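Researcher: Sequence of Tyrosine--tRNA ligase follows. Predict its structure.
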Amino acid sequence: MNKETEDLLNRGVGEFIDPGGIFREKLEKNPEKIVIKFGIDPTRPDIHLGHAVLLRKLRQFQDLGAKVVFVVGDYTAQIGDPTGKSKVRPAIDQAEVERNMATFIEQIGKILRTDKNVFSWIRNSDWFTAITDISAPMGQKLKMTLPSGQTVDDIDANSFVGKALIFTETRMQIKDLGLKEDISVITLQSFLWMLKHVTHAKLIERDLFQERIKNQQDLYLHEMMYPILQGIDSLVLSRIYKSCDLEIGGTDQHFNMLMGRTVMRVNNEVEQSVLSLKLLEGIDGKEKMSKSLDNYIAITDKHGDMYGKVMSIPDSSIGNYFELTTFTPMDEVENIRKGLSNKSIHPKEIKMDLARQIVAIYHGERAAEEAEKNFTETFSKGGVPADIKTVKMSKDTPLVEILLEQGLVSSKTEFNRLTKSGAIKEMANGVYRIGKHRFLKIER
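Model: Prediction complete. Tokens:
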């Protein structure tokens, strides 16, 4: 196997499960026949650098000819994956799922190829909802054209025939993938059959569940079912796309992805291999990057904001960021780690190189150069960003209300805390600095 492929299967990888080398062999001989599953719960619309670690790995497989299939968990998002949660995760309503999903699919084009040869996506509600699950607005009428060409009007949308029409018109397997037979639908009967092959002891091996039990916290059955539902996604994908060779996810998804192997095995399908990638820590250097923890860098951040956030990461995270978010060769990454350890490399200088590389990936070289220049002028020379946001407010509007409205503080409590610590400073000409990297010019 060549160096490029070895790097693909090792860089940033926590675990790679490929018994018998089945996936490696297919990657070497027939990469264009490979189907790779990537599951997403569209609960949050913005993609950050933590997500991008996975997407960039997928892009590398695409460049070899493999097809990436996004399984959009609109059905399972309404249940809630407990991964990484010490408490029960609230369900999300379908309308929000649809909004977030549209935004997510739009953003991935910054990283992935989205042409049909190497990319596809499908909702898992496509197989987890049956005809009888459909509920149309009361009084809705439908029209149906018979094979003879005759049109039948005024079909009650909530009748069985009406629901069958809606089912047919909304199945992605039919309207987007062109399947005319063998449409996959998971019924209660088939789900219960799957459960017969998964023991309770196996499910509670999961670290998260063990932690809940240890702390005497509630563990609900719907949460325990989630890994099985995710495993069923892999099974259905292998039937729709004729194979599901690999599932990629973070190390926190490793248990769920292995469940896919179990479900496929008991259904006599070739088991998917599993590639678990290391998790990228947030800009706090402690927890994994997460919007809920507000320690993230979004790929849609303005180039100046992105550069500044990268510069704020602790020195201990520099090596991981080079490995997981840039194209820097791994031998150079190891040299950077050694240099930081023996103090032969200055952290600020290498961090500026890191920030420039990351901005260039998502905004281009010119924007990266501009962000670096602006950062140097602003933070090294005590200047103000060239692209500072300006708002017009009346003289009577309190500063706290302005900052709340502009999203620069989340609450009056945070405002008071920042003010007390001296983190909110008024500079010249109505410019305010909030924390290290946020600026606002107020014209009154």
